[in-house]
Write a structure and sequence with these properties.
183 residues, 6-stranded mixed β-sheet, 10 strands, 20% helix, 44% strand, disordered C terminus
Amino acid sequence: MKIPLHITFLNLPPSDAIEAEIRKRAEKLDHFSEHVMHCQVTVDSIGKHHTQGLMYEVRVDLTLPGTEIAVSHVHRHEDVFVVIRDAFEAAVRRLQDYVREQRGDVKTHEVPLHGHVTQLFDEGYGFIETPDGREYYFQRDNVAYPDFDSIAVGTEVQFLEHVAAEGLQAKRVTAGHHIPGMH
């Protein structure tokens, strides 16, 4: 890290063991991004709950060029090291997401198209028409729910578009009441 790690203890005495664990985990952040400029970790004992033991909050604040990542983890757990582990794991996930976004590696999820089945053939294939009139071919293997034999002409479906050399095809075809916006 370019700027030293800062550790703050609130409502509990400083501990060499806790500080060593935080330092160990903070050093690993550099494996995920060399751009972490600052790391502030706050360990707080929120108090003792009469039936569930101590409650700890561990907050990890990371500063990177142009952004900050803040993760706060609260647990009722007698072992502060578990809360530290969970907070750093959450911080690593957020840091990995940030790095992927910066590289342009963020996955985009395909938006399902909607339509209705216009033709079905005993050989295990059929056609779907979208509201704008496009026609998509699909096979038995492309039906995810319920199954090919349960679909009828007129069934409302959602699906993912696949453009093949043969034309427009529907993948992961699903039917039923679970389709948002379909009535």
